Amino acid sequence: MAIKLTINGVNRQIDLPEDTPLLWAIRDGVELTGTKFGCGIAQCGACTVHVDGRPTRSCVLPISAIAGSNITTIEGVESKAAKAVQAAWNELSVAQCGYCQSGQVMSATALLENNSSPDESEISNAMNGNICRCATYGRIKTAIKLASTKLENQGAEHG
Q: Are residues 62 and 101 in the same domain?
């Protein structure tokens, strides 16, 4: 049975078994490969996407549970917060191996979309559970702070 999902603004009919995890619908069904498989048990964050604006681990979420939802993957994230996060990531050379980075960026973007000026604790809470095999946690936190500053400066320029 086909399940209707909107992925990166495009309405899709996903013709896979209902218990197929969203990750595999995205990677195999739609052929968007930026979202990564890490652990398969929703513990590492590599598979993080936004479901109706919320950061969500896609590796264990069956597509039947989110029929009709709006899904945003790393390929489709375009908000001001996402652009600020991506610019900060590039400016500070956050990625080392890069494997976890799409999940890291998606979690950081969701944080800044809801709170453009998070404190240390809020950053830690939002990023908790996003594992980086290369341990670039310090650069990630610094990049989130830089992205927050970029968002504040954009607001000041347009305010």
A: no
Q: Are 111 and 66 in contact (CB under 8 A)?
A: no
CA 63 – CA 75 distance, rounded (Å): 19
The DSSP secondary-structure symbol of 37 reads P
Q: Please give the tally of structural domains in the chain.
A: 2
Half-sphere exposure of residue 3: CA atoms within 13 angstroms, side-chain side: 23
**In terms of domains, do 146 and 90 share one?**
yes
To the nearest 10 degrees (0 to 180), the angle between helices 120-127 and 137-158 is: 120
pLDDT tens profile 24-63: 999 999 999 999 999 999 999 999 999 999 999 999 999 9
What's the predicted TM-score (pTM) here? 0.94
CB atoms within 10 A of CB 71: 27
114, exposed or middle or buried, with CB in 10 Å at 0-12, 13-18, 19+? middle
